[in-house]
Amino acid sequence: MAATTAADKVLISTHLSDIYSPLQTTAISIQTSKTHVPLPPHPTDEEPPVEHAQYASFFHSVQTGAILLRLIHNGLIIELVSLSTETPPIRFVFPYTVLPNPALFLLDNRELHVLAVTASASLYRLVIPLQTPHQLWSSHMVSNWCREYHLKNAQDSLQAQVQVQGTHSVALALTNGSLIRIDAETIGDTTTADHWAENLFHHNTFLASITSFLHQASSDGSHIIAAASHPQPTDIGHIWTLSRDRTLRLWTARSGCTSARLLPSLASSGREPSPGTSTSTNKPSILLDPVPQKLITVYDGPYVIVFIPTPSSSSSGGFFQLFNSSNDHLQLVESFEASRESAHGHLQDFSVINGYLHTLWDRQGQAAVEILDVPMSQVPNEPESVGWRVVLYPYEPDLTPAYLDELLLSPGSLTDKLFSAVMRPGVFSNYTLRTAIDQYTDACRSLPGPPPPALITSYISLGEQIAAVVGSTVTLSRDPQTGALQRDKYWIALKRDWEGFIARCRAVERSARWPLALVLVAERERSGALAVEDLPLRLHRHLRADLGSEPQFAVCEVAWNLRTRMGTRALRALEGRVVDLTQQEVAFPFADIIADIAARDAFRDSLEDGSESWLVGRLQSVPDLEAASRLVLDLVGGFDRAVKMEEDEVELLLPQHVSVHNRMLTAAYAVHSVRARYDFILALVALLFFLADDLEGWDPSLLAEIFAVFRGVAMLRYAAEQPALDASPFTLVEDATDEVAARLRTLGMSRSGPAASAPMPDLFLCLLEQIGGGAVDAPFAVAAHAFLDMSGLLQATSTAHAARLRETLEWLPRTPAVMYVWARLWLDVGRDAEAAEAMDNLAGPYSALSFEDADALAAILPGGQLFDSMFAFYLHASTLFKSASLVDHDVHFARLALSNAPPDWDTTDLWSAIIRGTTDLGYWDEAYTALMSTPRDSLRRECTRHLVHRMCEEHAIERLMSFNFVGLIDEVEASLSFKARNADPRVQPFYSRILYTWYVTHGDHRNAALAMYQRARKLAALSNTDEPTLYFALADQQLEALVITSNALSLLDQKDAWIILPVAPEGQQQQGARPEPKRRKLTKHIPEDRFASGKRDLEIVKLSDVVAEYTLLSAQLDLVRKDPELLRAIATLRSPESVVLRLVQSNRFNLAMATARTLEVDLTDLFSHLTRQCLRLSRNPDAVLSEDTTDWLLTDKVTSWAGTPSDRGWRYLKQSLERHDGGPDTDLRYSKVVFETITGLESASTPPPWLIHRLEEHHPEWLIRACMRFDMLELALELTLSLIHKIESRLAQDPPKTAMATWLPYTLIDQLLVATNEQTQSDLSKRAIRLRRDLHKEVSNGARRAQKLSHRLYQEL
């Protein structure tokens, strides 16, 4: 920072927490090799917030640019912030408190060295290697980067003033007046440590003793409170110190204190009369404050400037004394006082920069820079001409309760207004707001009772948290007597709550703005610089301070006085009127409008008494009001591009690479300039209302120009007060085809909010990046003016660039350019219908536009020119809505573009957008019509698949079946088949069912059956689970698929009721799938040379196979429903035999018989088990009835039979045999099993007569043998006799024609007779004996008859 005398200066600054978040910095912990180092002292409530620096300094070099060193967190952290590059800040966390005045140096143009001394008596050297010009450092350090040296001549609880003279020397000024000098003999590297040499010097020399005796110094007077050395680079190794008794001492590297001067306590003019004469009286003076201060500075010579504060003086804050310290001797050169404005202020820092003395003052929490008017080289020659130029911040309203009351005068919500005031850029930093809301929340939580929900909720942004938390403890109560809502008390309490929060913010911000250091301007939480003050800012400062103005701006002064005399309420009302006026379409002359509003509002009545005549008198002194008003317009809308700074100042502040810090300073400068311009234009508009009756003779174009400029400045002022909502605005737009949309999104129009930890950039900074990005390399004033000029809002006629601002479009007339921007904004914020309507209205032709409107529209359109046809515009609109995923409007403009497309234009993309868009919107009829109308077959087929899939996903199956798809049926079937094969059959839409419906609708029952059968196969593969619920669901769906398959096959000719499907290779069947029954392969008898290699075999699945699968699965499902534990052994139910056996074992005879009949399973075991059950019923019916007999004995049919349960059981067995054992395929096999089971288990009882009769009728020989086998000889004799009688009876009725026409089992009869021989069967019953005799007789008679018959037949032959 350099000063010049050619132009006035102004202070500008920005909050560091708005540049970066503490959470985004790299923190590196530093360890100590000392033992028993105590914990750092705990901060007290009186100390400033931890992120507020207690010490700061600047370092600048060509290689690094400007670097800010800050000591924060109560001295525990040193932070380095690069102000010239985008390098993220880096922090070093020390184990103990760092003493003030750590320093940063550059060594050999390749390393940054930080030297710091801690209160635990350790000297640290931190070595930071430089990386690149744009990335100075990284978090990865080299070896031995942190080097610690233990001081030998200092105690652990060290209290000293640290003065780092350079990379090789450090001085410690102690409280007892001694000085420890630490010099580096060698500086280490990555492997070796530093070697330091310590020297302790005392000030108790002979000269110092005489001086102390003469002036009777206090015992605490030797306490050193300030120290300084010659700035680097230099070979001067002296140290200058100032103690509390105002003794200035010079310390050399070898001899220690070589010169001492006792300084006066009050200012005295003139030079030193003689080298040995004191400049003070013998009267003791008050000691200086023991707090370390910046009271000494050294510059080339070496010259030493010492400041002596005079806090009790009302004329100044102190005085300076200039010493020449050549020849190691202090010689007074000159004394001069500080400025009158410095009275009751506190000097924080001062330095000689480019020959001029710069001082930094703290004026009740506000920084002020004072610059000596003459160079220091002229001070000894012209002391009487010494004067000071004061540099202050531009005017900025403080959020006092009075100012908040002014804000509440305008209509609107109390919360919205106060929230907007708090969140206004530049008022409070992100850290201030975060600290204040945390303090507020802690205070609210300390109140008795449960905290409100807003206090314990997490928020995504700081603004959201403030809006929700502040005022959350205020509730609307009722009057205890009347029960009425006490709204007035509620609003009063809410306002006080907000005022309390704002007071907390002001307290934290006051600490944040405490000045610390010069070169640039460092405050506790802000960093700033000096900039050239432009004309609006300078005139604004003069008028606010009643300093008057130049004669040419007399109208400005009159208008300002009018603005002041109106009062706040009247001024706010007028401002609202003018804003409403500029946001409307004006159909009448401005002179008439102003006169009408002034008459209705009685404008002049709002002025103070006597103000009207005074203003009229002042205006009479202005010869030409119109010309003077144009001069005010030039002041407000003009830009001084010739604002310059000296070359060294530009080099110091603005390196080649412009950082965010400098861009934010430029944006802050622009904000202050806009606010000053707005005050001037508002004052001029107020003057027009004061002159309402005299405006008829004014030039109408002048009035229109005044209101146009007011509109532009108001728009800029509105933008200056808005924070941006986007967290990453620092990206220039490179795609010119969509430049406006990208810029508008950067202005904070995104629907998503920022992260809570990220700093929220100001909207003006975003505008500066996007609009004025090419001008930010200039000094602040020049860059700010260039940005304001490029915005186009301060020109009376231009509206072409108004699209860069968001809500400010309300100010502009609805020209085509503005409407296009409105359409883009509506499109971005989700107001789709308004955006589409605006785009429809903006369609050409553009020949009817005026030159100005056409030029403005061309400037805002992509490419910077108008569209050459309506087709191009509709195509652009369709692209915009497509990028915003607004399919409905995209289709609308695509249709319009298609209807206006040139004949040779490839319309494939438009057709695709229309078909796919209508499909995605669910407009099935429109999509089908567009699909069948498109001329390209490839696109038609591609979109067919998309349409079919979307209709299936949206369950529009009925509508899909109604479409014919002429020429595309194969595409539809292929699309559905692919989905049916590959989609999960458990997830909707069920493509197999849809494909089945499609085939059935088109009469293709075979493929319909195939689709459902494949679904059943996939479900079977998925049903291998031991989870009952899942298994039941999959099995039910599989049964449904098999039923539908069988129904579809039933509709075919039974000779052709089959389907064909591929056979999976062995080993590739899906795990868990049921083994399929062996079927005939279609390719079995076809030569393999007819097929290409790698072809898969096919199998034929008949209707009977499907029915069998259904039956088996149904039986399996029934078994599992009865016993879910079977799922764990489901493999045992894979074969039909095992399923039937399980059914039999569970007495499920009906289901078992039906399943076995369908699956062609032998029923031997079934009837054997059923017979045993019947026998048990006969013996013990209660035991059987206690079991589950619901499937055979307790059915409706069986229970309707008469008789006992045993009778019904035998009858059930009889009917079952009649149903399943009567055909030639069984040959009464099951009846024989029943007979054997009965006789085997109940040998003493006789089988049921119906069973004997059944077997006797068809298999008498087997029955006789069975009786003989089970020793039922009596029954065997009876059955044999019955057989003989039947044969004889048949012979009698129909004599045989041959001798062998009849047959009797004579061998069996002989065996029976032998078995029943009396000699061997002595235990035969009487009836058995009688039957044997009858049988023997019948056999004998039969033999005789046979002989007679044979003889007769022989004779006949």
Task: Write up this protein.
The protein is of the alpha+beta class. Helices cover 44% and strands 14% of the residues. It contains 44 helices and 31 strands. The protein has a five-stranded mixed β-sheet with strand order 2-6-5-4-3, with no helix packed on it. The chain has a four-stranded antiparallel β-sheet with strand order 1-29-28-27, covered by helices on one side. The protein has a four-stranded antiparallel β-sheet with strand order 7-8-9-10, with no helix packed on it. Helix 4 (430-445) crosses helix 6 and helix 22 runs antiparallel to helix 23. The longest helix is centred in the middle third of the chain and has 31 residues, at 660-690. The radius of gyration is 54 Å and the shape is elongated. The protein starts with 8 loop residues before the first strand and ends with a helix. The relative contact order is 0.04. Mean pLDDT is 81; it is low at 1-6, 210-217, 270-284, 641-656, 725-758, 772-776, 796-806 and 1067-1085.
